[in-house]
Automatic annotation (TrEMBL):
GO terms for molecular function: isomerase activity; phosphatase activity. InterPro entries: His_Pase_superF_clade-1, His_PPase_superfam, PG/BPGM_mutase_AS, PGM_Phosphatase. The active site is at 8 (tele-phosphohistidine intermediate), 83 (proton donor/acceptor). One of its GO terms (cellular component) is cytoplasm. This is 2,3-bisphosphoglycerate-dependent phosphoglycerate mutase. It comes from Eubacterium ramulus. CDD domains: HP_PGM_like. The gene is gpmA. Gene3D superfamilies: Phosphoglycerate mutase-like. Transmembrane segments: none annotated. The record marks 156 as: Transition state stabilizer.
Length: 216
C-alpha cells in the first residue's frame, strides 16, 4: 500500500509570509490552481485513491476536495493531522524570526527540543503523538484491506515534517531541515507494518519562487 502525504495549496498568509499554525486561513485563487495541477498530475499517473483524509482547516479541506473531484470519493476529516498550533506567534512574520528577541520563538524554528509552547499552543511532542496515533491506528489497519492500494492525507508543513522525521527516525532538532512547498507530495510505502519514504517533494507544477518561499 502507498500513503501519499500532501501539503495544502498556497494561502493568503503563505503569500504574506506569516506563521499560520491553527489559524484557519483560506487558499488564494492560485492555491486552488496548484491543487488542480496536482489533481491533474495524479490523473496523468493514474493514481487512484481509496481513502482521502484531511486536516480540519479549510486550506487543507479545500485542497483535498479538489483532488477528490476526479476520484469519486469523499474526504474524511481527521483532527490528528491538523497543523501544529503556534499560539501567540501565529500571524508573526516568518522573515523576522531570526532577529527576534524572543528566545523561545527562535528555539521553535531552530532547536525544537528546547521549545516550550504557551498555554494555547502545541509542543512538538504533541504533534508527534498525534501523527503516531494516526499512523498506527488509522493507516496500518488499512494495509490489511486488499481493496486499499493508495491513501492520500492532505495536511500542513509542520505536520508533514513530523511524519517524515518520525518515519525516518530523525531527531526532533532536524525537524526544519525538511522543505515542503505548497502542494508538495510525499510517497510512503506501507508494507508489513512498516513505513518507508519512497519519494519526497513531488511537485506537479513549475514555480521556482513559490517552491523556495518560506517554511510554513
Amino acid at each position: 500500500m502507498h500513503l501519499y502525504i500532501m501539503r495544502h495549496g498556497e494561502t493568503f498568509w503563505n503569500k504574506k509570509g506569516l506563521i499560520q499554525g491553527s489559524s484557519d486561513i483560506a487558499l488564494t485563487p492560485y492555491g486552488e490552481e496548484l491543487a488542480r495541477d496536482t489533481r491533474d498530475g495524479f490523473d496523468r499517473e493514474e493514481i487512484r485513491f481509496q481513502r482521502i483524509y484531511s486536516s480540519p482547516y479549510q486550506r487543507a479541506v479545500k485542497t483535498a476536495e479538489i483532488i477528490a473531484e476526479h476520484q469519486n470519493i469523499s474526504v474524511k476529516v481527521d483532527l490528528r493531522v491538523r497543523e501544529m498550533c503556534f499560539g501567540k506567534y501565529e500571524g508573526d512574520k516568518i522573515s523576522e524570526i531570526r532577529n527576534s528577541k524572543d528566545q523561545n520563538l527562535i528555539y521553535c524554528f531552530s532547536k525544537p527540543s528546547m521549545y516550550v509552547a504557551d498555554e494555547t499552543g502545541d509542543n512538538f511532542s504533541d504533534v508527534y503523538a498525534r501523527i503516531e496515533d494516526f499512523l498506527k491506528n488509522e493507516i496500518l489497519p488499512l494495509e490489511q484491506d486488499p481493496s486499499v492500494e493508495n491513501v492520500l492525507v492532505v495536511c500542513h508543513g509542520a505536520v508533514i515534517r513530523a511524519f517524515l522525521t518520525y518515519i525516518r527516525q530523525m531527531s526532533m532538532d532536524e525537524f526544519w531541515s525538511i522543505h515542503q512547498p505548497n502542494c508538495s507530495v510525499n510517497c510512503i510505502l506501507v508494507q508489513n507494518g512498516t513505513f518507508h519514504v519512497e519519494k519526497e517533494n513531488i511537485l506537479y507544477y513549475d514555480d521556482p519562487e513559490l517552491t523556495h518561499r518560506g517554511i510554513l
